[in-house]
């Protein structure tokens, strides 16, 4: 799948988030760097607790305060660094130039207000048109998101809609101000497989029409294969591998990535049990000295336990922007398969 554009709209460099917890200071996002181009979908994948959602919240400066804060790095949205901006300046950007679709639409929508009221509020953030004009735009957004009888849905309350419909409403709110970037935090988790497939197809169609860039946070490599152009794999707060979807699936370069791909159920191959990754992710308050995955890795060597690896060219090649953090890549003949 080819990306729809070449211009980079979101550039993240060395992003680090610090949280003061009962166990001490932890870093759920540690030295994250990524690029997102117009018309492109980048998948951010990893187990629960790997730092995916915290990364998404950091990009919109929505970290829980006062416990969490950005302590290093840059978040450049079309050339503007968001990290040093005041909260007032961020309110003029958040929802307009960069927006977020949260995982649970039931929690995202206010049960006391109609769908129309909540869409009007999002539209007014970037447009002072008369109410009648907002109503027409709101109905148009619901129609774009594939909701039947959009005029009637504007008068409904969230509890009167199905889960799939609520998720589409949340998507309409995110698109209300025509943002350059949407951060979608596991938006299909609560949907059944049929509705999930429809929603992913809908996101693809909207992206083709609008050119919006999407950071799609998920734990599901099947969704990545279906929707994304590139993928970044997170483990214990760091990106351990990043590259084009085809390179990652055909030539995974980090043992953790290879293990995640092997754990995806196959419709054709029969197996008594699905492969599993031994052990548990380390607590962020007690990360190992070297590679964080080394205690669970069948390919670990003494160096892996002592020294964290830098980014090295992946098996897909540096020219394809395929990189991974694994010492074994210094041997060109090695594979994690």
Molecular structure report:
It is a single chain. With 337 residues, the protein is an alpha/beta fold. It has a domain at 1-38 and 46-86 and 221-264 and 276-337: Rossmann fold (3-Layer(aba) Sandwich). 31% of the residues lie in helices and 23% in strands. It has 12 helices and 12 strands. The chain has helices spanning 52-59, 87-93, 105-108, 115-124, 131-144, 150-153, 163-175, 193-210, 221-227, 245-250, 255-262, 302-306, and strands at residues 8-21, 24-37, 41-45, 68-77, 80-81, 98-101, 181-185, 213-218, 230-235, 238-244, 312-313, 323-324. An 8-stranded mixed β-sheet has the order 6-7-8-3-9-10-12-11, with helices on both faces. Strand 1 (8-21) and strand 2 form a beta hairpin. Helix 4 runs parallel beside helix 7 and helix 5 (131-144) crosses helix 7. 43% of the residues are buried. Mean pLDDT is 89; it is low at 1-5.
Strand order of the largest sheet: 6-7-8-3-9-10-12-11
Helix content: 25-40%
Average pLDDT reading: 89
Percent in strands = 15-25%
Q: What is the number of beta strands?
A: 12
Radius of gyration: 21 Å
Distance between the termini: 24 Å
**Major sheet details:** 8 strands, mixed
Helical stretch count? Answer: 12
- Choose one word for the global shape: globular
